[in-house]
UniProtKB/TrEMBL annotation:
<dbReference type="InterPro" id="IPR051582">
    <property type="entry name" value="LRR_extensin-like_regulator"/>
</dbReference>
<keyword id="KW-0964">Secreted</keyword>
<dbReference type="GO" id="GO:0005576">
    <property type="term" value="C:extracellular region"/>
</dbReference>
<protein>
    <recommendedName>
        <fullName>Leucine-rich repeat-containing N-terminal plant-type domain-containing protein</fullName>
    </recommendedName>
</protein>
<feature type="signal peptide">
    <location>
        <begin position="1"/>
        <end position="26"/>
    </location>
</feature>
<keyword id="KW-0732">Signal</keyword>
<keyword id="KW-0677">Repeat</keyword>
<dbReference type="InterPro" id="IPR032675">
    <property type="entry name" value="LRR_dom_sf"/>
</dbReference>
């Protein structure tokens, strides 16, 4: 069996240390503790859109503090597919189901944070929030987004290192590119050198 050259094994060792330290932080709650009440007269085409309503309303009501261009102004009522910046498409696993497949709030200058409930948007393929004022961390619940292939978090105010949860996305299917600002440059280099069958573009 060929042995790995020392730099690579060192790198993998560091990566596993990092993953260990990240998993010990993973006790973050799956909900923000604040609850949106769904109007009982609202009808949703399917349970996925109902969950999306819950996630988006939690974001708007409890985790968005300033929205200077009124981007979320029309995030009202059960028809989430007509909300600004929210895009629906047939689910890849069942084309008869319309699901929230994309969020694009680039350049909206919104201040707030990403609540754990966003993990309910488990059909998301694109999540673009570049050039806003989001702070805090990327919630660990993002690992539920198994279809995510474009994640653009650049030009926000997130704290800390390379977002831990990004490593828990379906990395078996990942090509990571983009400009990553990480306090762990070795990790950046490692991530940008991964080559796997599908594409995930991450910009943080
Ligand atoms: C924001 O948008 C909503 C819906 O389009 C509108 O009703 C509301 O008046 C707008 N608010 C401001 C401050 O422009």
């Amino acid at each position: 069996m060929p042995t790995m050259p020392p730099p690579l094994s060192l790198l993998l060792f560091s990566l596993s240390l990092l993953l260990l330290s990240l998993s010990s932080q993973a006790q973050t709650p799956a909900s923000s503790g604040q609850t949106v009440t769904i109007n009982p007269t609202f009808r949703f085409q399917n349970p996925s859109l109902r969950r999306a309503y819950y996630a988006l309303q939690t974001w708007k009501k409890f985790a968005i503090f300033s929205d200077p261009f009124n981007q979320t102004g029309n995030w009202i009522g059960p028809d989430v597919c007509h909300y600004n910046g929210v895009f629906c498409a047939p689910s890849p696993s069942d084309s008869s189901l319309n699901v929230v497949a994309g969020i694009d709030l680039n350049h909206a200058d919104i201040a707030g944070y990403l609540p754990p409930e966003l993990g309910l948007l488990s059909d998301l393929a694109l999540f673009h929030i570049n050039s806003n004022r989001f702070c805090g961390v990327v919630p660990p619940t993002f690992k539920r987004m198994k279809l995510l292939f474009e994640l653009d978090l650049s030009n926000n105010r997130f704290v800390g290192h390379f977002p831990a949860v990004v490593l828990k996305l379906p990395l078996s299917s990942t090509w990571i590119s983009g400009s990553m600002t990480s306090k762990a440059p070795f990790l950046q280099r490692y991530l940008t050198s991964l080559w796997m069958p599908y594409f995930l573009t991450i910009t943080v």
